[in-house]
Amino acid sequence: MNIIITERKLIKMRRKFKLSLLGMGILCLVSCVATQNKSKEALEFIDPNTYQLYEVAKNASYAYTSKYPVKVGGQAKNEGRLNARRYLNALLGTDGKKVTYKLLKSCCYEKTKNNEGAKKLTFLDKYELEIEGTNRRSIIFISTFEKADMLAPKGFSFRIKKEEE
What we know:
Radius of gyration: 24 Å
Number of domains: 2
Low-confidence stretches: 28-40
Number of helices: 2
Helix content: 25-40%
């Protein structure tokens, strides 16, 4: 069987193909953006002033150096310090003891990699943490300009939301 396709039909077929590819590309892009937004908004709270954390960092430098700050975000909505408190309120000592904290200073312009891998300058807050009943003090760095998954630093644990009965 010989199929004869005129030049005009061929042009129409190409247009339809290009439009369908464009439509699939837009659909894929919208889907990816929706997924990214969902993961960033998927934060859970123990209460309005405390985030729910789920893991302790494997990287011993996480939070303790300006190169690996805790990225709580919120600066764009003027909630940076609130997000920092929500994070800090979630921390406990490894034995479950309360952690107190104080802001030492805003400091440290630091080149960090954002979630896409690009390097940029960020401004950090430096906090001192103390575990109740001990003389152990730690310094951690928090970025309110960037947002990423938050972990408890090594040497700390975190609060767990109690199931409502």
